[in-house]
Design a protein that fits this description.
elongated; alpha+beta
Length: 69
């Protein structure tokens, strides 16, 4: 009986861990944010890999950050 009381919470924990990994996947990146710190001023620019028409309709997009020092 004690073994069952220990095994059930462990199984629920493992099931939650597996479901968390499956559901929390990395979001799709639409492009890159480039931060150039080489000169006196910091310069920010971004490049889109996705089509502009599909990005215009979204409220939020994810960008990879590329720092250049």
């Amino acid at each position: 009986m004690l073994a069952l009381q220990i095994a059930i919470p462990i199984l629920f924990f493992l099931l939650g861990l597996i479901l968390g990994k499956l559901l929390n996947r990395k979001p799709h990146c639409a492009g890159k944010l480039i931060i150039d710190e080489k000169g006196e001023t910091e310069r920010w620019s971004f490049m889109l890999d996705d089509d502009v028409d599909s990005v215009k309709e979204q409220k939020v997009i994810f960008l990879e950050i590329d720092r250049r020092a």
